[in-house]
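Protein Record: Sequence and Backbone Structure Tokens
======================================================

Structure line: whole-number tokens from a learned vocabulary of local backbone shapes, matched to residues.

Purpose: to set a sequence beside its fold so the mapping can be learned.

___
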Amino acid sequence: MSGKLLLWLSFISMLLIQTTGFTYYNCEPDGNFTTNSTYRRNLDTALSTLPTTNTGLGFFNYSAGQGSDRVNSAALCRGDINQDVCRSCLNDSVVNLREVCPNQKGAVGYYDECWLRYTNNAILGNTDLNSGLILYNIQNASDLDGFNEVVRPLLNNLIDDAAAGGSLRKFASGITTGPDGITLYGLVQCTPDLSRLQCSDCLQNSITGFYLKYGGRIGVKSD
């Protein structure tokens, strides 16, 4: 018997699960733009340039334009995938997110390997989450107390490691053994523009939130 705990955390909110392309995406309520608008041209520029801004560790950000026509874009690849997979995921995201949110000024899309967001609001350094989403395995651990006694230290250690990361990467993953010899996997990640305190606080808040509702599930994924 084996169990798996996967925590893939980031700091961009999403509201809507869909079945097309992305694991989930949201067309944000930031307003709409028209085909020949300045905002549309800035969005074209931002998303065409974004893939060239890789820090080398899977974090991308680029802004184009000024004032109400400014477009901020950012993307983050999961810290354990290679650069080819990262690049492919981002390229797919750019194409697919514009298809599903064709006229919205703001949108966010998630795959398992990466996420992409663009908006005329601030992205970098922003940990304000209007909402989030938790996916969970419906199966409960057979030894709830023993399971939680192992999971909590694993996640706390990973949070410390990720938050201590530098300005290019804040990522940590680990493995531990749970009750009855099951293997538990943990993974946490912040966008690297966040401070150590911002990263730690946001991860801790996310973990607290899913423990309140889904403690003891053998798999939880929170974004």
About this structure: The first helix runs from residue 38 to 49.
